[in-house]
Amino acid sequence: MxxxxxxxxxxxxxxxxxxxxxxxxxxxxxPPENILLDPPxxxxxxxxxxxARYLQNRFDLPADRIATRLxxxxxxGTTGLGQGVAIPHARLNGLKTALALFIRTPHPIAFDAPDGxxxxxxxxxxxxxxxxxxxxxxLADAAQLLCERSFRHAARLARTPVDIHRLMLEAQ
Length: 172
What we know:
Elements: H1 19-28, E1 35-37, H2 44-59, H3 63-76, E2 80-82, E3 85-86, E4 89-92, E5 99-109, E6 119-128, H4 132-146, H5 149-157, H6 161-170
Parallel strand pairs: 1-5, 3-6, 4-6
Antiparallel strand pairs: 2-3, 5-6
């Protein structure tokens, strides 16, 4: 099985930082190739299956295990934040370093968010099984990014994955 590892110039230790450095790390683990615009999904199950297949094709990761872990985590409590955004996440045994996908669906889908609004933008995170500190830092960074009204608005209007990636790099 191929594993996802960061380039040598960006050590995983950067994940434990805060502020701009941490947000840039979030952008690093979510390059334009990991930004999916308008995938053909209509519900949570389809979202998890689609993204799991994408990760399998791109990184040779086990799609069935990814979809199952994401669904299990969601059953523990919603990862919807409100305002049309969510951070589905899971720990994955055998993963060497964290990775992220930004997904913007063509139509918002029900996600049991606290405000009752459907979700159209997702920042999906996968982390190694025992990466506790990194997992918490990435969740905090993702929440900070997605809770910025200006980022959400710009991401909804962005035309390409490169545009969204640029927004992630520019986030402060």
